[in-house]
Every structure is written in C-alpha cells, then in structure tokens.
C-alpha cells in the first residue's frame, strides 16, 4: 500500500464522521441551526398532528442565545451518528427560544410568545427537550401533554435511550422515563 493510500485510509473515515464536521451553525438569533429543524408556523397542535400522521414524534427544544449547554447538546450529543439518524428518521424538531418574541400557538390553543410559553411550561433551564405524544389530550398545554420533559444535557447514550423510548411510544412501552434512565 502506498503512503497516499495509507493516509487516505486513515483520514477519510474521520472526515465522514459528523462530529468532526465542525460546530453546528448559529442562526441570526444566536441559536444553533441543525439542518433537521422543522420550519413551522409554531402551531404546536398542528405540528404534533403532522408528525403523528407521518409516523413521527414531535420534539421541542427550548434554547437560548449564548447557552454553553445548548452548544454542548448540538455539537457533542445530537451530532452522534446514532442520534442524528434517529432524529432524521423519527422526529420533527421545533426550536423554541427561551426569550423569543415569536408567537406560537400552544397545544391548548393559547397564542403567546415563545418566552411566555416557556414560562407557562415551567422550563427551568436550557436546553430543555420536550417529547410530545402522538395524540394530545384536549385543551391541554405542552407541559401537561408531554411524554417527558428533560432539562439539561445528558450524554449521548442516555439521549439515545430517551429518543428510542419516545419513538417506540414512550409510556406505552411499559417503561417510564425514571426507570429508563436508572442504570
């Protein structure tokens, strides 16, 4: 094997790995913008129904500008090839800005800003992952309807377990989130 072939054999697999492709780009709002984010009018009941109709789950990610833990989530955890593939295959992801002024429609029908919605839902910190069930109870807001609300950053293996659990039906699997994360 020539030196060039040896060098290519060692370098090409690394170049193809998404984690090494560089940080996830930031948008004008200072939030990370992976290419799998859903473009949405942020009518969350409608977004949830569209995801369910496609056999997918709705995942809300609450973030804020300058959040070092959000950067870690995007650049170290969600870029894990197993998680990236699962998100692309099974989830519609909508980003919520903790301090955002963009209006959204909560699953209970209330129209409010992202900032007011995050406060209403009791989001304690960023990032927070909110996993929605395929069927929403009537007149129920996101926080009460959610299968799970995960504040902070978990490692890739725990994040993968949670996303696989949600994709498989969440509580309908017979396991709750605490059981799932206890080792």
UniProtKB/TrEMBL annotation:
Signal peptide: 1-21
Pfam families: Thioredoxin_2 (PF13098)
InterPro entries the UniProt entry points to: SoxW, Thioredoxin-like_fold, Thioredoxin-like_sf
Domain Thioredoxin-like fold residue range list: 52-135
Gene3D superfamilies: Glutaredoxin
Keyword entries, A-Z: Signal
Claim: Signal is one of the keywords in the record: yes
Taxonomic classification: Bacteria, Pseudomonadati, Pseudomonadota, Alphaproteobacteria, Rhodobacterales
Species the sequence originates in: Paracoccus sediminis
Name the UniProt record assigns to this protein: Thioredoxin
